[in-house]
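Encode chain A's predicted structure.
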Amino acid sequence: MTISEILKAAFVSEFVDLTLMQAVVIFLAAMTCGGIICLVYRLNYRGALFSRSFCASLFAMTLITTLLIMAVRSNIYLSLGTLGALSIVRFRTAVKEPMDMAFMFLSISAGIICGANLLGIAIAGVACVCLILFGVGRLPRMVGTYIVMVTADSSAEQRILDLLRQGTRSASLKSKTVSNGVIEYAWEVSLKGRDDSFIGQIGATDGVNSAVITKSNTEYI
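Encoded structure for chain A:
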């Protein structure tokens, strides 16, 4: 008995042949799951630069994973070949938002579950998880810390400090660089609500060359 025959005899009960109708139903369920994921991702996205290609890739990822799992579960040779092929694949695309990773994993999971013909679990699970993600995305954002960077003459230092105390909840000096009479400051501040009008007052102060405020996670305001 050859190795392939031994493996086939041992795992024959685990591999099933899918009919064309079953494959079509599974594929339609995967399309439904992928569509739900893409819709919720679009509604939940709160950044400045929405990527259509990434949204489309979530849909494609669900379908591709479904096709792969359908092939794997119906043929032992494909399953072993896929295992070897995937072991050499490396993905190096940078994920800019942590939530994007959650949607990517959800798309892959949906494809796996659909490919395993657990359609009820796939659709209900995707709908439930997407509802939770949508709810989390609608929660109001907490006011975080900001970085204030000011370039000014030394004569304006006291006025800048006064405006910082008046316009922020707290301010902590992170760096101070002096060069040819010009001082560069960097403070970590906590705003009073979302009021950032103090930065305009600092910028209009005599002796101030520039004033910039940026959020600590690189979101600019």
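The domain at 145-215 is CATH 3.30.70.260 (Alpha-Beta Plaits).
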